[in-house]
Amino acid sequence: PQEKGSTFLQLGSSTEQQLQVIFEVLEEYDWTAFAVLTTLLPGHEDVVDYVEVLTDGSFIGWEHRGVLTLNLSDDDPDGSRLRRQLREISAQIRLLYCSREEAEAIFRAARDAGLTGPGYVWFLVGASFGGSDSLPE
User: Fold this and answer.
1) Domains in the chain: how many in total?
2) Domain for residue 30, yes or no?
3) Any long-range contacts for 118-122 (C-beta under 8 Å, 24+ apart)?
4) For position 57, what pLDDT does the model report?
5) How many Å apart are CA 114 and CA 83, to the nearest integer?
6) Nearest 5°: CA angle at 13, between 12 and 16?
7) Residue 111 lies in domain
8) What confidence tens digit (pLDDT) does each residue in 91-128 have?
9) Has residue 104 been placed in a domain?
10) 42 lies in a domain?
């Protein structure tokens, strides 16, 4: 008997789709200066590469202010190194690719560093946030 093919239904949006929508929002609000922050979560290099594809081929004058790869290791128990790293980025628009657990530590450090108040816009990118009942504070 002939095997039937299977159909794969993707209910969540892909990271690429999320980035496309984020860049449409950035363009709509004329937020052209941004930075990309990632952790070592698998796929982080693909996210950085895709951001370059979206911005390099665009007629918008994007001001890519760099990529910061955050290393969330156990040798920074008080988060001082993470706060210092977060302050190195001058862009007020930040695209963050990380896991849900990492986001909690990153936003705690960002809040402690004064980087979450008015004037800062964070976009969370990745599949690990879909359907979350609550987001990091």
Assistant:
1) 1
2) yes
3) 119/92, 120/92, 120/94, 121/31, 121/92, 121/93, 121/94, 122/94, 122/96
4) 78
5) 9
6) 150
7) 15-125
8) 999 999 999 889 989 999 999 999 998 899 999 998 66
9) yes
10) yes
